[in-house]
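In this section we walk through a basic example: taking a raw amino acid sequence and producing a predicted 3D structure, encoded as discrete structure tokens. The instruction is simple. Fold the sequence below.
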Amino acid sequence: MTQVIENKGLTIDTLKKRSDFLRIAAANKKWITPAMIVQTCENTIDDSSTVRVGYTASKKVGNAVKRNHAKRRLREAAKQVMGVSAVKNHDYVLIARQQIAEIKFKELIRDLKWALKRLHKAAGKSGSHNN
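The resulting token sequence is shown next.
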């Protein structure tokens, strides 16, 4: 599934391979909010106008209906936020937490923006250092 965001001309692709999820988790760059965990790392693909996003919800979130609802909320939040806050040539994984069903959608968007801002601010300060 590919979507084009008009603000930056970014293309959002969906991550589907387990190896991509593991690579992003191994980068160990994450920000935790009450409703989600945001992980990121640089993209290995040469296309610099692509942002790839993966969505996941474990059984801790609830049954299949609740997990699907959580992933739908994450996808919609990513559509609205990634055009403004995403950095080109990066991959992201959004992991739902138990509170995602209880939090208001505006707060979910605010948390995602804040997490992306903090992740990229920390990356800018640390330079070549690994966290």
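Looking at the output, two observations stand out. The CA atoms of residues 86 and 113 lie 9 Å apart. The two ends are 32 Å apart (CA to CA). In the next section we compare this with other chains.
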